[in-house]
Design brief:
By secondary structure, the protein is α+β, with helices and mostly antiparallel strands. α10 packs antiparallel against α11. The longest helix is centred in the last third of the chain and has 33 residues. The structure holds one DNA strand.
DNA sequence: AGCACA
């Protein structure tokens, strides 16, 4: 399938370990040159971000259009180690048709300089205030050692909990939280990749799984395809109204063969889907029903992980998360298959969203002020829109 | 090739 993205084809990885002779010491910021100067600044920044962010949190991507600065960019990492691993793995990567050249920046980026200053100020202030100087610890071990008097038989759970409360896990959880915000802005397909790389990165970073909770948000609208052209709204109504929470059938004016079925709850939609997917609505047509799912992963509150039972579930949660990531991918592919055969335009996308937006206005006007529900619905609408827009634009630019 | 950020 041909998908248009703003991502350049990342073809040959000519990386290996051939570090360019490099006199510049490691830096938070990578200097990139030999970039394709034809790419527009915004897109370039976005693509660079998407490429480099797998190696760690990125503070900024700077690219400039001027004669002197074209073809170059700066990637500001929060962490030097991450900058280093990006430098090593992406060196000479074909990017928009040209092998990019990476080195450390000669000077610190302003943002880094500032935060270094702030840290220096704080430690100076601390030193001035406190008379017993804090012992300068050297090189913190990956997993904090047990307290000086290790209780003879710490249970596995207790060790686990101690680790969960470690600074490293907190940082990892933080990284995941940042990533979550970023995920919201990515099309579904890219979210899968990001979720996987976040898990991988955090897992290697702390040597164990980050405690994550996942929330699968289903959607109370079903997408039905392969309907015979003469299908009427009444016929579909007959079929679907037996399921609890049924609200409405929406045919798409000007488009044969598809329909949207709204429910007032996810579970009703799911049970209708399970019952009717593949249903032979006529001698020749077995209908196919797609239920769009959205999922969000977020770090578990590390305080909550003090609870033993929850800490037992961590591993299971993470593996479930991985499965969900794969599921999203599969579903996305499946959707694309459906949609590739159709002229799926914006009015169709809007029609799909019609139900959701109505739910939103219902919630808003009900005056119950359920913030949480509103956020979810609004978020789901945005994600759904992004996904649909992505699908639509992939036809446009074919 | 070219090292900036307001």
């Amino acid at each position: 399938m041909s998908i248009a993205t703003d991502q350049p084809m990342a073809t040959t990885m000519a990386n290996t370990s051939a570090p360019v002779p490099n006199s510049i010491p490691p830096n938070h910021t990578l200097y990139v040159n030999n970039l394709n100067a034809k790419i527009k600044k915004q897109q370039l920044r976005k693509s660079l971000y998407n490429l480099f962010v797998s190696y760690g949190r990125i503070h900024a991507v700077v690219a400039m259009k001027g004669v002197k600065m074209r073809g170059q960019a700066f990637i500001v990492f929060d962490d030097i180690q991450n900058a280093t691993s990006a430098l090593r793995s992406l060196q000479s990567l074909m990017f928009y048709g040209k092998p990019m050249r990476l080195s450390y920046a000669k000077r610190d980026s302003d943002a880094i300089r500032n935060s270094k200053e702030q840290i220096a100020e704080k430690t100076a202030a601390l030193a001035a205030m406190s008379q017993p100087e804090p012992k300068p610890r050297k090189e913190k071990p990956r997993i904090p050692p047990p307290p000086s008097q290790p209780p003879p038989d710490r249970t596995v759970h207790e060790q686990h909990i101690a680790m969960m409360n470690s600074e490293e896990v907190n940082r990892a959880a933080n990284a995941v939280a940042m990533a979550e915000a970023e995920l919201q802005e990515l099309p579904l397909r890219d979210r899968t990749r990001r979720i996987q790389s976040i898990i991988a990165a955090q897992t290697t970073m702390i040597g164990t799984a980050v405690p994550m909770m996942t929330e699968v948000q289903s959607n109370s609208t079903l997408f039905v395809t392969n309907l015979p052209p003469e299908t009427t709204k009444d016929a579909l109504e007959m079929l679907f109204r037996q399921f609890s929470g049924y609200l409405d059938v929406r045919l798409v004016p000007g488009r044969e063969g598809i329909a949207f079925i709204d429910f007032d709850n996810d579970a009703g939609a799911a049970s209708a889907r399970d019952a009717l997917n593949g249903f032979k609505i006529s001698a020749t047509n077995a209908i196919s029903i797609v239920h769009f799912f959205l999922s969000i992963a977020y770090p578990m509150n590390t305080l909550e992980s003090q609870n033993n039972r929850q800490s037992e579930e961590l591993a299971a949660k993470v593996s479930r998360l991985k499965h969900i990531a794969f599921d999203i991918e599969n579903e996305t592919k499946e959707h694309n298959r459906f949609l590739e055969n159709m002229r799926f335009d914006m009015s169709t996308a809007r029609s799909f969203l019609g139900g959701s937006t109505r739910h939103l206005s219902n919630v808003m006007s009900s005056g119950r002020g359920d913030r949480r529900a509103m956020c979810y619905i609004a978020g789901a609408i945005i994600l759904a829109f992004l996904f649909l827009y992505y699908v639509v634009s992939s036809f446009r630019t074919k």
